Amino acid sequence: MVAPLKVGIAGLGTVGAEVVRVIERQAATLTARCGRPIKVVAVTARSKAKKRGLDLRGIDWAKSPLAIATDPNVDCFVELIGGAGDPAGPAIEAALAAGKSVVTANKALIAKHGLKLAALAEKHGGALNYEAAVGAAIPVIKTLREGLAGTGIDRIYGILNGTCNYILTRMEQEGLSFEACLADAQRLGYAEADPTFDIDGHDTAQKLSILASLAFGTKVSESAVYVEGIRSITPEDLRAADDLGYRVKLLGVAVRTAKGIEQRVHPTMVPKTSSIAQVMGVTNAVTIDGQGIPPITLVGAGAGAAATASAVVADIADVARGIRAEPFGRPVAGLKAISKAPMERHEGGYYLRMLARDHAGTAATIATRLAEQDISIESIVQRQPDRGDGKAKSGPVPVILITYATSEDAVRRALKAVQADKVISGRPQVIRIEKN
Amino acid sequence: MVAPLKVGIAGLGTVGAEVVRVIERQAATLTARCGRPIKVVAVTARSKAKKRGLDLRGIDWAKSPLAIATDPNVDCFVELIGGAGDPAGPAIEAALAAGKSVVTANKALIAKHGLKLAALAEKHGGALNYEAAVGAAIPVIKTLREGLAGTGIDRIYGILNGTCNYILTRMEQEGLSFEACLADAQRLGYAEADPTFDIDGHDTAQKLSILASLAFGTKVSESAVYVEGIRSITPEDLRAADDLGYRVKLLGVAVRTAKGIEQRVHPTMVPKTSSIAQVMGVTNAVTIDGQGIPPITLVGAGAGAAATASAVVADIADVARGIRAEPFGRPVAGLKAISKAPMERHEGGYYLRMLARDHAGTAATIATRLAEQDISIESIVQRQPDRGDGKAKSGPVPVILITYATSEDAVRRALKAVQADKVISGRPQVIRIEKN
User: Fold this and answer.
1) Residue B36 forms contact with A (CB below 8 Å)
2) What is the pLDDT of residue A293?
3) N or C: which end of chain A has fewer CB within 10 A?
4) Is B336 a catalytic residue?
């Protein structure tokens, strides 16, 4: 019998407890697949007394994450505490420095300190696996790191935050406001009491910076991601998108351009026929455009204890089997620095929604201002809002435009001119379009 | 500098030539990712003279696939000849017996002789990688073998044949007949001159038997797959499906039931809202239902030189990195025998379409016969066919039913009784429903 892989787990929340259960329940399969048993030998958590429904007999209760990370009896340190700082960070560093392999679901830590940790893993020979950090059981890390190892990548984009997609789906399907859907998401546990991190796009940005590193060989850098959240999206935008053949999703997009790798997170119009547009509710999805090959899309739950545990256990199984790739797919020293995409140079199509003060002539004024910036209009709609009784409302009339590909700079200049003309009330709504 | 992985390639068709080009074009990335260069040292193909646009200077032209497979200078044998017999089979056996790793895109060979080859790989320590054999660049083999190593799987189903999906998509979108779409597919190169292997479901069955082995630990066995092709599907079925909220896809389904693993390939009604229903044209998709986790769906091109080469090069990169898993995820000796699913015991919902001879009373007769077999009806539609001028046609009237879950046996008995009643003309159309 080959020696078992001895695993120590720090953090026994819903994910940690599920990992212990899966390793137990799938013991025979894991042994067959890995050629050796996987054995949990040590655990720790904040409270030893908490009821978890786990049989921990025969498993050492360690006094701290660091104690597990440095325990000579542990081969593989599994960090499920969360948070980019102490105690998760120092414990992982200690485990890697001791030559152990590390498995973590900690997206924030990988986004902020992944390079330092990867360098330690490289130096001491351990693995650093973090499949669960992005898209839970969706195997996107493995696909980028191994499955597309020889394929140049032009673009990767995805729905990486279930909270935002849940809110946008409900807004679209039920015509509700952003605020109403957010409140519902909070009530159902899909959104935090402080939802800023999710709805303002920061969670997506952290995940995107990790995927971009794997896809393009760039240094993981959250600060190099342009970020815009979903607070400004209205039911009117979703209805107009629908009429025009689009849906609005909060996308993380990393794309190779003539000017370098552009990383951005923002509400995005995607064609209704695209795979990504079909993704509803808390589901996540990632589309990868490999050079010369049709897009590959991976869809699944982006969170949840069982889905996250599935990825964590697979990462442990890779360690047991001796499957190891560099944490970011290639040596850290070879990763290229990346700077923030200057969005004024972004090129693409745009959706613009404005409120015309005066129906007659406003569309012509807007069209003229766009033409001055060489922006071609794909479609223009003036929509007379309904009062709810089938009769037209008085007051400002929405004008909705879709442009052909142009530069953001040109769009901003044109809108500034339109505002100076005083033919619209309020600020124009601008949503970028991503073609598949 | 670490020694390069020396690769020999047998077969320089569109895929083989593309593999040579990708290894050359991506040399720097591959070296960084694998920690060593990948070097093509030998090739062979039927005709040396054929123009391929490849620079083969410095590469040995071997006299046969077997010569490459046994060349001591070759570490990794890449078989891109195709066909389950000679010369592909013996060459792969020789390479594995010599302890080399093998990469192949040969689905037929893996379906028919995969177990024997896997046993050889196990015995001599080489890898046997075949990601391209199912779904080309869609990383479904790796996902099942590694990405879900610790996750029990309840069901795996997919659109695994682009030809059939292309035909069904055109039939649905344009109301064309099966024959017209097949002829178009042949003209466009999406279907072979002899399309039997694709449209009668055998290609899907071979791929399904491979996926089922990886998912459930069963022996690869094409003969254990129940197979039904798409010849009998009519535009009327697709229209009725659409009305009822379904689409018709040729699915390969492997599912864990109380009576064992059921493997089947047949036209299937899937809810229009499911991920799999969105997959159009020659695209392939696979959905995996892991225990306790929401479905994971992988979508992409199922064929094409660049997509296939992408998977082949990734498989070679795994060999270069020393990433190795058992070919079917676990040792061959542990794989369980599987027998053909007795379809009469299959349980699920059914779509039934019959032509009622006499409008009045026929639906009642049918409903009674179904009730006698304890089959509950979810919906029933009698559709008066259109003459094309908006007026009702005379003659038989289609009756379309959707049943709740029942056994196939019960459906067959009920339909036999209906036929004995002589209230319908012709044979009833029966399409199984797969819920997501």
Assistant:
1) no
2) 96
3) N
4) no
Architecture of the structural domain at B140-301: 2-Layer Sandwich (3.30)
In chain B, where are the structural domains located? 5-137+307-334, 140-301, 344-433
B 285-324 → A contacts, CB under 8 A: 290-301, 304, 306-307, 310-311, 313-314, 316-318, 321-324
CATH number of A5-137+307-330: 3.40.50.720
Q: In B, which residues are within 8 Å of A300 by CB distance?
A: 293-297
SS (H, E, C) chain A: CCCCEEEEEECCCHHHHHHHHHHHHCHHHHHHHHCCCEEEEEEECCCCCCCCCCCCCCCEECCCHHHHHCCCCCCEEEECCCCCCCCHHHHHHHHHHCCCEEEECCHHHHHHHHHHHHHHHHHHCCCEECHHHCCCCCCHHHHHHHHCCCCCEEEEEEECCHHHHHHHHHHHHHCCCHHHHHHHHHHCCCCCCCCHHHHCCHHHHHHHHHHHHHHHCECCCHHHCEECCCCCCCHHHHHHHHHHCEEEEEEEEEEEECCEEEEEEEEEEEECCCCHHHCCCCEEEEEEEECCCCCEEEEEECCCHHHHHHHHHHHHHHHHHCCCCCCCCCCHHHCECCCCCCHHHCEEEEEEEEEECCHHHHHHHHHHHHHHCCCCEEEEEECCCECCCCCECCCCEEEEEEECCEEHHHHHHHHHHHHHCCCEEEEEEEEEECCC
Q: Does the beta-carbon distance from B304 to A293 stay under 8 Å?
A: yes
Superfamily of domain A343-433: ACT domain (3.30.70.260)
Pick the catalytic residue from A100, A107, A207, A249.
A207
Contact B150 A296 (CB under 8 A): no
Each residue's pLDDT tens digit, A169-217: 999 999 999 999 999 999 999 999 999 999 999 999 999 999 999 999 9
**pLDDT per residue as tens digits for the range A411-424:** 999 999 999 999 99
Q: Is B146 on the interface with A (CB under 8 A)?
A: yes
Averaged pLDDT, A346-365: 89
Structure ipTM: 0.95
Instruction: Tell me which residue in B151, B321, B331 faces A310 most closely, judged by beta carbons.
Output: B151
Q: Searching chain A, which residue's CA lies closest to the CA of residue B30?
A: A150
